[in-house]
Fold this sequence. Notes:
Blueprint: E1 34-38, E2 44-48, H1 52-55, E3 61-65, E4 67-69, E5 73-77, E6 83-93, H2 98-102, E7 108-115, E8 124-127, E9 132-138, E10 143-149, H3 156-163, E11 164-165, H4 180-183, E12 191-194, H5 206-214, E13 218-225, E14 247-252, H6 253-263, E15 270-273, H7 274-294, H8 319-332, E16 337-342, E17 357-361, H9 368-377, H10 381-390, E18 401-405
Parallel strand pairs: 1-18, 3-13, 3-15, 4-12, 15-17
Antiparallel strand pairs: 1-2, 5-6, 5-11, 6-7, 7-10, 8-9, 9-10, 13-14, 14-16, 17-18
Helix pairs in contact: 6-8, 7-8
Amino acid sequence: MHRSIPSLQLRDFTYDLPSDRIALHPLPERDASKLLVLTPDGVINHRIFRELPEVLPWGSTLVVNRTRVIHARLRMQKPTGGMVEIFLTRPVAPSADPAVVLASASASTWECLIGGRNVSDGMELLHAATGLQAVVRRGVGTEANVELSWSDQRPLAEILVHAGDIPLPPYIKRDTTEDDAVRYQTVFAKTEGSVAAPTASLHFTDDVLSRLEAHGVQRVEVTLHVGLGTFKPVDVDDAVDHTMHRERYGITRKAAAELADRCRTEGHFLAVVGTTAMRTMESLFCLGARILRDGVDAVPSADVAQWEAFDDSLDAASRADAMQALVQWMDARDADEIWGDTAIMIAPGCRIAMADALITNFHQPGNTLLLLVAAMVGPRWRDVYAAALDNGYRFLSYGDSSLLVRQTSA
C-alpha cells in the first residue's frame, strides 16, 4: 500500500541558528520583509516581500490559511492566592470544533498546558476580572484538561479577549504587547481557533493582496487551526518514529469547487502560503483521492492519518478530480464545508500532489516543518538556509520569508 518510507535521521535536518538571528519583533511594515526566491532551476534570488506579485506567474492560485489566533494564554488565581498559567491548546467538549466552542456561552472542556506549582486535580482557578472559572482535571506532567465556565452570556471568545493574551511562540522570550494582538494575526484572519499564527501569512498587506488580484492571482482560503504540536520538538533520532500532532482543518464547498475548476487547466500554478496551508492542501488531496478510490459512501470522515502522503494507491488521482470528489462528498452529506483532523507528515520521499510552490518563513533546526521544506525542494534546503544566514535574513515566526518553487529535477 505504501511507498517505502525512508529513514529520516534528524541529524540530517539541522543547522546552526545563532540566537541573534531569531526575530523577536515584527518589522514596522509587514511587507518590508526580505523574500528569498528559489526558482524551478535552483537559482536563489533576493527580493522584498511586497514584490511577490511580480514574482508569481500570471493567473496563479494562492492558497492561504484564514485561521485566527485566540487569546489562549491565561493567568488565573489558585484558592491559596498563588498564580497559575493556563495555555489552552484545543477543545474536547462539548465539541472539538474551536469555532463552535468559542462562539458559545456554555461551559466547555479544553486540553491545556499548566504552569505553576501545587496544582491538583479538582482545583478551582479564577480570573476575577471576567469571572472565568477553570476546574483542573489533571493529566500527565504539565498536560491536563480544564473545565471552563462563567456566569454571563458572553461567548467564550469575548471572555478570552479580556482574560487572556495572544500566545507568542516559546522561542520569543519576551512579554506580549498590544502590538502583538495586531501583528500576530494575518490581515485575512477569520475563523478563530489557532494557538499560533500561520506566520508565513503575516507578511501580506491589503496592498499586496490587491496587486496580486490585479496580476490575475486568485486567493483561495482554507482553514487549519494551528496547535501547540507545531512547536513540539522531535525527540527521536529517526523522524519515522515520531508521532505527529493532529490539527483541525477544513474547506468550504465553494473553495473546493474553485480549486477543481482551476486545476483542470493544464500547467496551472498553485502556490500555498505556509506549512499549515501545505498540510491542509495535501490532506485534502489524500481525502479526495480516497473518495475516488473507495467511493463516496465508503469514506465516513475527513480525518487524515500520518502516512497518507506516502500511500501510493492514491497517486493516480489528479488534482482536479480529487478536489471535485470533495465537492461530491459534501453534496452527498448536504454539507457546505468539510472539517476533519489531520496528522499528515510531509517529509522527503512523500507525494506532494497540490503545491507547485511554498511561501514560508525560516524554521527551527530539526523539526517537522524543516522536513516539509526538504520534501518540497530536496537537498537544496541547505543552500536556501545558508543563503538566508549569509544575507542577514531574520528567522522564525516574526522573521523574513521565502518562495520555494518545486525543483525541475524533483
